[in-house]
Design goal:
With 255 residues, the protein is an alpha/beta fold. Helices cover 48% and strands 14% of the residues. Helix 3 links the parallel strand 1 and strand 2. The longest helix has 26 residues. The two termini are 40 Å apart.
Length: 255
């Protein structure tokens, strides 16, 4: 109703020279407002990108691929779907999922793991300090974050900062942060199909060290070139400069 009838809101969009949106999906939410010229620019960023140090050989040395989830353990984050996926991974896929975080869905996830008989494949660590989380990020082989109602997905920036291949949901903010150069996006689907889609992504990533290494390089590149604050400041500076030049040209033409 506001988008259709609020005169102040509608005027603000009509008078906007450049609109910044956090992810492409936001543009789908704007009509019937007039959509001005726009750029996709996430409001979050990375302060200090890490050098590329991904070790693709370590999973072979320990004979399993370490998957890591970090975030609130609530239903919409998809933690339970990640647990269910462990039941559907191929028998030949040797993986371990570590879940870091707390929330009102944690006990349900633990029950799910017990009922599906995958407790040996899933570790629930609960809340951990940032240094502890950083240590787990440094030791992981891939990051799993299947949130299916996520406006941004800032934790994925930490995964990219650590050059981790990612598996996420192809929806909302994560669908923008993770692209085909750094991970696998699983289409949202009903619960059973979604878990199987995640399992297929895990099988593909766990069974292909070269793909993990390729995605790790892509993750490192995106961290430094797309989400590092220095890169973001350069892009914002260019946007403002272009707007100022265009405004001055308009004023000169009107004089």
């Amino acid at each position: 109703i506001r988008k259709r009838y609020d005169p102040f809101l509608r005027a603000s969009f009509r008078q906007t020279y450049k609109l910044l949106v956090a992810a492409p999906y936001v543009l789908d939410l704007l009509p019937p407002l007039a959509v001005p010229p726009h750029e996709v620019e996430l409001e979050l960023g990375i302060d200090d990108p890490l050098p590329f140090m991904y070790d693709v050989a370590r999973s072979a040395e320990r004979d399993e691929v370490n998957l890591l989830y970090v975030g609130r353990v609530v239903r919409t984050k998809g933690t339970r779907d990640a647990v269910r996926a462990m039941k559907h991974v191929s028998a030949s896929t040797r993986v371990k999922l570590t879940v870091i975080g707390d929330g009102d869905d944690l006990e349900a996830c633990r029950r799910e793991a017990a009922e599906l008989d995958v407790t040996a494949k899933v570790d629930f660590l609960g809340w951990r300090t940032k240094p502890e989380v950083d240590a787990h990020l440094a030791n992981a082989d891939a990051f799993v974050f299947p949130s299916f109602r996520e406006p941004t997905g800032g934790v994925l920036l930490e995964a990219l900062r650590h050059s981790l291949p990612c598996i996420t949901c192809d929806y909302g903010g994560p669908a923008h942060i993770i692209d085909d150069t750094c991970g696998i996006r699983v289409p949202p689907a009903p619960e059973a199909e979604f878990a199987k889609g995640l399992a297929a992504a895990i099988d593909r990533l766990a069974g292909n060290p070269d793909l993990r290494h390729q995605f790790a390089k892509g993750a490192s590149w995106r961290a430094e070139n797309e989400f590092d604050w220095k890169s973001k400041r350069r892009r914002m500076g260019a946007i403002y400069s272009d707007l100022v030049r265009a405004r001055l040209a308009d004023e000169k033409a009107a004089a």
